[in-house]
Queue: 2 jobs
Job 1
Amino acid sequence: MIIKTQKSIAASEITDPLIFKQRRQIIKSLLAITGAGIAPAWASENKPMWNKLPQGDFSAHDLTPTPLELIKNYTNYYEFAFNKEDSTDLAQHLTIDPWSVEISGEVEKPTRFHLEDMVRQQTLEERIYRFRCVEGWSMVVPWVGFSLASLLKSVKPLSRARFVKFTSVHEPEVMPNQRSNAMLTWPYTEALRIDEAMHPLTILAVGLYGDVLAKQNGAPLRLVVPWKYGFKSIKAIVKIELLEKPPLTTWNQAAPHDYGFYANVNPNVPHPRWSQNSERQLNSRFFTPRRQTELFNGYGEQVASLYRDMDLEHFF
Amino acid sequence: MMRIDKLWLTTLLAGLIPLVWLLFDIAFDQLGANPIQALHIRLGDWTLRFLCLTLVITPVQTITKWRGMTTYRQMLGIYTFFYASLHLLSYLLVDHAFQWRMIGIDIIESSYIWLGIVAYIIVFLLAISTPKQIKKYLGKNWKKLHRFIYLAVGAGILHYFWQLKGNLVEPLFYLIIIVLLLGFRVLVWLTNRQLSKMMIPKSRK
């Protein structure tokens, strides 16, 4: 399969190199201030965890990333809070070290990994991806992560495996909305079709802006599927199961008419109550008019073939 | 005759505080990561708050029998229209930079916006029927027209509910206020009916 990785980018979205450099400076100083507070024990203090990671082929390095402070303070982490600000503090109660991840189901080698061992076996890259929330806002996020396909191959999936299910951590003691059983069925689960999971765009992220993920952003390990709405990119993963049958997923189960299993970004298929045609791209400027949302969030060249014969309005 | 006294002037100026506060927050970047959504919510919230305050006036007048309250009801009503207009304008200009095609698709596909439009049209009609001449011209119909304020507040609250993914606490607050206010009106209406029944002589039955 030949995968084209470059796509045309509007001139307006390309940052002047000088401004880009200045922003990097600002970001570096921000990292210096905040880095220590969010890092688990296995991260070095004060310094960003990773320097000069290779930019994956799929990284849109010409896009201007959303400032780290915005990414860290605008999260949907319903286990902690239903608004986007409170989980910044609340998530700090989650213990993420030590962390282990179980991979089981239709695989030859079911394995329970210590997170450090898992990461050590993989090649980390920086991937600058668009991130589009089903609520109509978007960011550009410089993730640090590794290919999910590479991890799955290491446990040797059986040919029966057709779906990959992910489960988030269940910690009612520190997660108020799990404790009170509020709104959704906990723990949070998500799933992909096996070909989506094996797609080279799909990554497991462990970092952001060259440093370890902040807890509110899904530390220590989260999924990132850039052509799907953000709720598919599950946070704080503890279990990955390969399955024959499609599993129930949290939002799809809670409101099947509103949130489909596929949840591919698609400007032509509105949510029952709001349009998905455009999005607010979050950055530091106040006056940023909405931009047109792209089919598959702009990753159509890479992923459209996965859905070739499917009616996207039916399989939304 | 409009009485221009201290209280009147204070109320007038107080109505501008939310706007000044908002401009301050824009200037000093205090609106968070999604400032345009914050702007919409802020202006929408103040529209609903002024609408609720407008509706509070009549019950207060009924209970206290204070005179001259209608002036304040009118002013609060105009402020409702003012903040609703800013809310709409920020949607068209700040959010969309007047990209009409994008606006058109957004409105057609977003049912929560339809409710906002219904509420705005009503508030708009109520505001333009404020001048005395129009009030006189409309006669009894003026009062009928202004009863639509309840439809406006209902549509406004639904407009808020309808766009949320799950957390409904904020609009619930307005809903409770409005149910209380409406409950009061129903109570007054029932009492009046009871009274008028008692007035009717038995022989006419």
Note: Residues 4-8, 33-44 of chain A have pLDDT under 50 and may be disordered.
Job 2
Amino acid sequence: MVFFIIMFSDLECDYINPIDLCNKLNQFVLPEIGAHGFLTLLFLVSGQWVAFLINAPLLALNVNKVRLSNHMYDATEIFRTLPAHKKEAFIKLGFYLVTFFYYLFRMIAVLIAEGDA
Amino acid sequence: MSDPNQQQLPPGWAAEWDGTHQRYLFIETATGRTQWEPPVLSAELQPMAPTSSPPPSNVHHAKRRQYAAGQTQAYYGTESTLGSGGGYPAPPSQQQQPNQLFTPGLAAENQFQQQQQQQPQLQPGQQQYYGGVQPEPEYINGPQYGQQQQQQMGTLADQFGQMNMGQKGLRLYTTNLLTSPPDPRELHNPPPEIVLPPNSCISPNPSANADPSYQRCTINAIPTSNSLLKKANIPFGLVLTPYRSLKEGDEAVPVVTDTVIARCRRCRTYINPYVQFIDGGNRWRCCMCSLSNEVPQLFDWDQVRNAPGDRWARPELNYGVVEFVAPTEYMARPPQPAVYVFLIDVSHSAIQSGMVATATRTILENLDRLPDEDGRTKVAIIAFDVSLYFFSMPPGTTDSSMLVVSDVEDVFLPKPTDLLVNLAEARASLEALLGRLGDMFKENHIIGSALGPALQAAFQLMSPIGGKIIVLSSSLPSVGAGALKNREDPKILGTTKESGLLQAASPFYKTFAIECSRGQVSVDMFLFSAAYQDVATLACLPHYTAGQTYFYPAFNARTEDARKFAHEFGEVLAQPIMLEAVMRVRASKNLRMSSFHGNFFVRSTDLLAMPAVPQDLSYAIEVQIEDTITAPFVVFQTAVLHTTCYGERRIRVVTTALPTTGNLSEVFASADQVAIATLLANKAVERCITHKLEDSRDALFNKTVEILTAYKASMTAAGAGASAQLAVSENLKMLPVLVLGLLKNVGIRQSSQIPPDLRAYAQALLTSLPAQLLMPYIYPTFYSLHNMSPECGTVGEQGVILPPPLPLSSERLERHGLYLIEDGQTIFLWVGRDAVPQLIADVFNLPNYEVLRGGKTTLPLLENAFSQRVNAIVQKTREMRRGPYWPHLYIVKEDGEPALRLWALSCLIQDRSDVLPSYQQFISQLKDKVNGGNY
């Protein structure tokens, strides 16, 4: 996500052209969605209901995007939609950070609980 | 106080020194009336009128020779203000002191020195020549730029500053929309005058500001802050057609040939008539970022004659539109030759409709008109149905061989050479091939089209060079990459899902367009299908590669279609296109180009890539005011770096300077309704695609309401309260009717009858037509022919005289009349049901109304005056505008075929038609909204 944001600001400063930008970013879009989907699935399987519920909205959003096939960045529209893309990238970044610390906290909590037992 | 005789006095006034009162007495010579106060000119005349012009001596003609007499006259004032006769009458005082007359054109050294001595007391006289607008031209032909001149310049500037203190901005006239119906003639008025502050321009040339047909702004007096713009609520943007064709009588764009290109170091602005020379003429101050730059040394050197040159005669300091010949720093590679690849659909439907025959004949006839001055132009022909047919034309032979590639999944070129041939060298084989092509596929019964693979093949063929692909296709692409499905569904027309049909169905055409844009390949689409062809998707390709889409629904070469297509196709082929172009618009500080509309690919935040620029395409750019503007005027400069089709790298620079204002009424008074309508059309189409058609209509309506509300709140006594009037300034009077025309245009109209192909084509036109063609397209012209005055249709001073246009309302249609309605794309000849047999006989050579048949036709040219006049009007209508379009002529009988009748009537936009309001209803809707205040 940090990479995405850096690329977007590069585009704004004219360091990169939109075609290269989209080519570079688009190869990460599906892996990201896939990884997130896989993680969410793991939560579901392992019965981590809270973590699953936290991730479910984003999963739904991604699935919807893929379904409408607008998950890829479109070089012809990129300048018109750049502010929205940037905002989305920032929100996702924040979300991943928060969830990461939540997972860490949970993991440590579990480890401590196991150590106690 | 200087001698007022030398200063500005209106014609017919003289001044006499009164010794007893120690002041001048002013005498009106005709009446003998005297007064103490200096007589003043009316506000309009003051900035321009030369009240005491130089006597028409040879010297002066020599000096001002670069401008035709008519031009200068037109600029400096009308003849009426100058008195009778063609020349300028000289005021008595000047005739008495002929030795003091300043004659800047004299080259002789001693005379120049005399002038130098005389100049101080002659300064006031200067104002008379230049009407107080341009201070500097007295240095024309000046051999040096001394300190003395600098001082003079300063004093001169001061004087001019004072002199123009009383100069007024544009005046605002309020009209009531409820009581004043729209007058079609007002659309042809020039945009509001650009009143620049004095001293802003260093050139006396009237074309120092670009002509509005090249570049125009929606507001001709820029508000100084964003809050002021918000108050006026007028959309702020530029409408430009940098590569405009030249009709007869248009001045050619001057070219700077010596590759001395002065640009600002910081903002890269090209030097233009609005910069300031400082430091004795050794430096110039950029008009956008006010950085001081060095003047190139060769600027005052004439490289052709190898002698000192005259910088004031340089075109870039005198014209708003110039072209620079670019040196090698501006080239990424040596200038490419023009390349044309024709992709011709030879499937069954294309052959049947006669498209192939017409197209090959047109190409054959226009081979001579293809731009090929330097003999480098290359041509290739690829035919396709479900396979690809390449034609190899080895040099030196007159025959060609056909190579068939039926593997369309993985496209390859069957032969590395001889497919793309030099036009001049392979002329004979090309002609032979074009002659045979129609016959070769005469028996072709294959249905289907491998358009995608054909495009890929063409791209492979030309990608090392770039150029233009011209696609002639008459069926929906069905095989290989880019195959499309028929997604037309009459059930969803007129619903909210309709906008989905206007979006691209397949990503192939977008990604391929990007590839093309990188490879400097532009695509023009000529589409002919009778059935659904998905124009919306196919038009993506021309849209992002700076081409153009042409659509001939249900093309049939046996009708007038052939002529229309042949004419338009021929014009497109003959256009001297620009290749490998990039366009950038620069503007003064605190102005930012925020979004771009038109046919191009946005390559970075403000760089528009156009692999080939056809003539007469319009682009619209929205502008934002970022911070308070302090400068007295702002400059917009469009630069198009391109390769001409005869192998020269050039930069076309279009400069427009506009004054700024802190006054809301000036903002309203200077709004340009035509530019606003053009910008709104572009925005509306974009909204159609990203949102819904419904949203786009609402946005248009709301924008109009916002403008009117803003006007009412700030400019009328009613303020925020309710008012019985609907006030708007005189120069915006046509805006509501133009918006109504847009709302009723095929591209945007609410209807469940419009096929998506037609809608998509109309939208492509709305975003690409220049204002001259767009205005009739949204507000058609309507003439009454049966009762036109006898001089209409005859040749007058400005060509054929047209009858006065009527308002677009069917109440003007009389039952016995003959009318012409045209929107630049089609012409309707409306025949009333009680038309007298004589009229029918005169125009159509038929005995009476009953035997007349409606539909596409060509008017017979008969041996009677009326027929000739009608024909002349039709001809003029077809020719008077720029662009390749050749409108069809339809005869519409009042009781004829309903579809055609409805089509013609839909042009009368001031009428009510099913769900759409009439003009009166529209105005009262607007009024309710404006008075209601909440929307």
Note: The longest helix of chain B spans residues 693-715.
